[in-house]
Amino acid sequence: MSRFATGRYACYRLKTAGRVGRMGTETMVVLTTCGTAEDAGNLARLLVERRLAACVNVVADVASTYRWQGRVQQDREALLIIKTTASRLTELTTAIQAESKYELPEVIALPVQAGSVPYLMWLRESVAELKD
Asked: What is the pTM of this model?
């Protein structure tokens, strides 16, 4: 591993397909939006409670410009930044689609290529399905 950031929370670029490499490629950041901060907070809590996300950041009052039904629209929304794993992505997507008040909810999943090893380990443990 080679270091590419300094300081207390240094991140590492993953060069091998070893244990840490699998953790890095398994980690996902998912983006979605809600019409209000309250709806976003409720969705965030539900995702974490169901162990579909380890952490959800809600960024309120995001300006969104998009094309919908042939017209350019502009709205204020709340952006959710969701940390999860690839193995939980299908269930996470299903939950977002079921709970969203939008006709076509945004679900964009981005793979994490590097990160703090202790954080990535915590993230995986936080979304792991509980064993009986």
From this structure: 0.81
